[in-house]
Amino acid sequence: MAPSMGIWKITRYLAAVILLGMAGIAAYLWRYTSRETEPVLHPINQEYVNYSHIPQKAAGLHLEPFSFTGWDGTEIPAVIAVKAGEESSRQLTVSAELARHKAEELRGIDYVLVCVDWDHGIRSALPLAESLTAAGLTCVLWEPRGKNDVRTYCTHGLQESRDVPFLINTLRDRHPSEDPTIIAVGQGFGADMMLQAAAVEPRISGLVSIDAYTSLRHSVERLMPPTGLRLITLTLIDLRIKHEVGFESFNVAPVESATYISREVPVLVVNLEQDNPARMLEDALGIYSRLPVDCKEVWSLRNASDPPQAAQRIVAFSAGSKNQEEEIPVTLIDSREDAMPSIIRWMNDTMVPAIEAPHVPTPERPTLSPDSRF
Fold this sequence. Notes:
- By secondary structure, the protein is α/β, with parallel strands linked by helices.
- The protein has a domain at 56-214 and 259-293 and 340-356: 3-Layer(aba) Sandwich (Rossmann fold).
- The chain has ten helices and ten strands.
- It has a ten-stranded mixed β-sheet, sandwiched between helices.
């Protein structure tokens, strides 16, 4: 009897240790998952945390405020930005470039939709607007989170992109006798969102996508440490996101949206985030390779391995193990400061002529129902 009682005590002790160990692992995974999920659900740009979302004034710009109702009934603040007053340093840089290279074709563009961040939509888009307005363009900036930040979670363009048709409706009301020509320039979150919007909104005539990722899942995965728990943690993050917001991270795939953009829409894909594992040249190449459009280019910053006088870098790229490798010409930019003047030149020399050229009809685009992307 005594030996059996001893075995029973040992068994209970081991069971308790195992249960405590499992509880500790579960608690660790929960804390780790919560920490990793937070920046996905709330991608806050720390540069703007102490600033109001909508500035009273901006360097070199006149801001005309308005609002529109989004897809879910949310009131969304927006502004129309045009060049006014003394030029800012960014505007002076573009103006100096335009003095050497006229951009008269840009008069054919009525509005440029500009978006960068989810949390400070208008303020974070002002630097791009400064450069674009220096070329005489009229920019439209808005708050993806809605008035008073009523949208609690970021869906990385899945829901936010649905606002774009309603924004365009409001802009068209300003031109009752004609359809305005509208293009989009997005960076980071804005690029991810505008790729999704351009896939279903035929009134976007051209797109510049700066630092988009192929999919949110791949972006999150690359930021995680390469531990044996990576797959489990990714699964838990997906479950946490789905519980909070109603979508899983692999639902957000701008690279898939790119395949539905109409062939007559010129698209420039730019990679400037050289040291950001979440948004790599690989992402830009993946999006570029899936675009079915007739006019497209991919750009990246020059690095130390590029010959000083080289205008392009030929990159061998394959989207997957079963995909045939292709050689993609990547146009090189000398620095981040050169990016916007070069983009504006491309818009003038390539985008506008492509928009105005005769087009072969394309198949009908997919339509969105309220739950079609969830």
